[in-house]
Amino acid sequence: MPADPTDAPRRWQPILKLAVLAAMVAAAGLPINDLFSYALMAVAVIVLAVGRITSRRWSWAVAGVIVAAALGAKVAVDVPRIEEGHNVFLPGGAANALVAGLPPDVYGAMAAEFDEAFPPARRCNATSAGCWQAGGRPDRVYAFSFDGIYDTSVYSRRVTGIDFSDAQWHRLGFVNELAYNWNIRASDVARGQRERGVRRLLNPWRITMPHFMMFSFPAAFAGSELCWQGKVLWEGPGERFAALRHADWACRTLAPGDAGKRIFGLAISPDAPLAMKLRPGPAIRFYQLVEPALALIVVMSLLFLLLRWQPRRLLLPLTLVGLALVVIVLSDASLLGGVRPFDDGDDGLVYDSWSRTMVQRLLAGDVLRALEGMEPVFYFTPGSRYLRAVEHMIFGETYLGYASLLLLLPPLVFSMFRRFVATRVALAAVLVFVAVPVGALFGSTFYNYVKHAAHGYGDSAAAVMFIAGTLALVGRTRWGPCARFSPAFAAGLLFALAVFVRPNLAIGTAVLLGGAGLASLWQRQGRRLAGLCIGFLPVFGMALHNWYFGGVFVPFSSHTAMAQSIPMPPLAYVSALWELLRLDFAGENLARGGLQIYRMLIGPSESFAMAPVHAAALAIVVCVLSSRRYEGWLRLIAAATLGLYSPALFFIYSDRYLLVAWLFTLLVCCVWMRDEGLPWLRMRHPGLVEGIERHPAVAWMVRPLDRFARAAGIVPAMRARAAISAA
What we know:
Distance between the termini: 25 Å
Oligomer: single chain
Shape: globular
Strand content: 5-15%
Helix content: 40-55%
Mean pLDDT: 91
Radius of gyration: 29 Å
Low-confidence stretches: 717-727
Structural class: alpha+beta
Largest sheet: 8 strands, antiparallel
């Protein structure tokens, strides 16, 4: 937007926006674990990104009064809350907290249900790995929940309402505790399964772990109706529990004598699901609206009092975020507020379980053991466990933090492409990237990032940080980066975080930061060089961790020293070259090297037909790197792209390791096609190119893009780029 005299100085904009965001978060309250609060904060962040903070003192004064009044109202209004406890139910075991911790009637009823659903005669062998009997038992009666870390919960957490018909949306985090890492092929009791058919769209997962929920209501809920479908144990006088089973929905009114009593809901058998809903009275309904209403008032007041923004500037980010949300829902809707059971033995289960233990240690005041991260020497992907811990501390028992990174990716991709190609091409590229899965063949599609994020892997998060760091490094305009300290510091920090989460990005990071550092030295940009160095310093935290806790010097993680992690070490390529020179085509190293390169070239499609396509794309990257006709920053990205591919030549292959490499390859190829590919075609086949440009289908696609660009307010940028190109 054009500058305005009332705007705060540019250098203060990021700090002031963070202050406004902090006030919004304080009004919404942590954790942000419901869709209303999350949607409100997501829209607010988008407006903050496109707007400018004002320097008008009266606006800040009024905003301060509104925030203070809202926070005071939150403290003054004591919203009645329900004590909730939940946990997995497993009978027996030497150290089972449920045996002595649950009331005898309750434990007996649950054990009988368990024996009926899983007869002892048909249970898995207790000595076989992966059997639930060989695993752990609950070490506490009610499981720990991230939703309760900012509250004085007696059991797992405190809630203001009850409404669930599917366990995955009730946010039961214990399903991903490592103690219950059962193998579906060895255990008769399973953690969960993927739904099929249309139901999987909004309910992609079915929790099959035997579990229970307990609710204790304060006196304010007297007169409310508790409705359920399934089996409930209702506490009466003398700690005796009455079993109430409803095949269909039925309700019971909470009496004054029910205050403080425990009501257990049983979901022991996978074939007998539990659903519960609370119908509160008018007073409770009013209380339930107080907190979201205050959050809405504060957020809207801050946006209109402290920010200057144009509504049409929201069109592009909201469109990209909306399309990304559609892809997330189609892939795995549990990312948007639910809890899915991660695959047994998978990285996602390990990261999530470790983050739970780390946060519990932190809450207990054991800071050093929390920072240790469950390993004295990192074995693999060090940063994912810390990323999960921070996510859960902000977003509770959800994966909304990871979803936020995914929603940030499309705008980053658009800005990255717009940096080097025309706005129309960048707009088309990002729309194809998000909405058209054709990029799945090459690896450059949003769906791949969502797929790996849904499994709990850290690769997608690291890719977002790496792309954001690259954009901060090379600048968002054709004129390149500025010499200021703060953008360089942001770039260095983002690269450090990306490598912390996924060390396989280290070579690409070294190329980018090394090239940018040399350029800063050449241009005598001391502040920029200092920002890059200081921002990247946290990357050495991995080596410091391994030395402090493990007493050994390991730069990243120790699994890189294991032979099974490197099926094709560098010396094996030397042997393969010698076998090739001797025409020993049956040589072991030559065959292994060829297979390693083949796996790298087939891409996520795992189709032989894509190998030549990837090979040609890599040849183009090398061509751009070696040609002086291209901008230096693009050539640096081309060099970094080759660095990102290099680990695939040696380490075990997985398509998630090359997400950034494939996207950068596409970017470099687009610029090459503009500068060399299309001119060559025009010279050799002018009629063909002219026919394609005049084809009705091309016009049908171009016109909507131009209309959208005008509506979104990016037409002036398009005209400026056209003028630069003409000059």
